[in-house]
Amino acid sequence: MAKNKLGENRMNDTKARRFWRIQGECWRRMITPYIMYLFTSMLLLATQAIENVDWLRYFLGTLCILLGASSNAYLAYKTGISHYDVFLTGCIHRRNREQGIMSGGDHHPEREYAPWKGFYIGFLIGIPVIVFAGLSCIPGAFINGFGRFFLIMFAGFAIVPVSWIFGGFSAGVSSGMYACSMLFVLLPVIVTGVFYIIGAHVEKKRKKVIEERMSAVREATNEKEESHGQTEEEKRETLQPEEKKK
Fold first, then answer.
1. What is the pTM of this model?
2. Residues 11-38: b if buried by 16+ CB within 10 A, e if exposed
3. Which of 1, 92, 117, 127 has the fewest CB atoms within 10 Å, counting from its CB?
4. Which residues, at least 6 apart from 42, have a Cβ–Cβ distance to it below 8 Å?
5. CA distance from start to end of the chain
6. How many CA atoms lie within 13 Å of 190's alpha carbon, on the beta-carbon side?
7. Which pLDDT tens digit goes with each residue over 159-175?
């Protein structure tokens, strides 16, 4: 049986082991998008230092949020493409197994495409929003102060837009403002889920076009071979009467 470098065939994983491998893969895929949100959140906070020009502060802040979301969309799109390729490879290995051919030593089933994975990765990206916003709503100056500080620092894309509606941070501390920021967890969830699926569908369509072209080439080659075979047969038939005359 083929085995990977670790000496194991992941096609033989138990459900529990497969579950934890999927968790590891999804957490790995959330790191870079979250870093992009973190980076753009820092830029967002910098734009809020603009004074006396509210429209410019809102405009630049919105651009920062859109920059983070667009980076998230691109990374999710590429992940969808990658996971769909792995899914096709897994289909081949499973078909081989049905035929009694053991394979899949270098295959990673946890990386196979599944529509729910994009939304789950997006949810993982939004975990800092849920945790720190939740802490911000807990009574107690130390706990909610801790939560609010880290929410602003590490998930500014969630709290800053809400602060615009509530009149800014200087308008006073409001638990409702921090509770409303939890709604922004939907941003990475929707963006990641939708573009992950789009990436997989684009790759599926591309593979289908390639397969159709290869099929057309094979058919053209077969027709050419058949035509060549008929020509040779006709030549032999024309030569037979001459041989009989001799």
1. 0.84
2. beeeeeeeeebbeebbeebbeebbebbb
3. 1
4. 156
5. 65
6. 6
7. 999 988 887 766 556 67
